[in-house]
What we know:
Blueprint: E1 2-6, E2 13-17, E3 23-28, E4 35-41, E5 44-50, H1 53-72
Antiparallel strand pairs: 1-2, 3-4, 4-5
Zinc ion (ZN) is lined by residues 7, 9-10, 12, 29, 31-32, 34.
Amino acid sequence: MMLKIKCPKCNTEGSFSLVESSYHGLYRCWKCRAPFTIKIENNELKSCEPLSQEEFDKQQEMKALRDKFKRHN
Ligand SMILES: [Zn+2]
């Protein structure tokens, strides 16, 4: 399903495709490019925390590593 997420920084609404009813991870505003950590439970946005660019890169890196690991298994 698609969930609407309003960017706390610029108030632009973006859509986020949800695979499961809960999600905890990264979201980046398509307009102002601000990175956030979002938490979704039962198709509802529970929290949206701003993330520093540095932290975002680190998380992306970790995710890439995990995906890489998965592929090699
Ligand atoms: Zn924004």
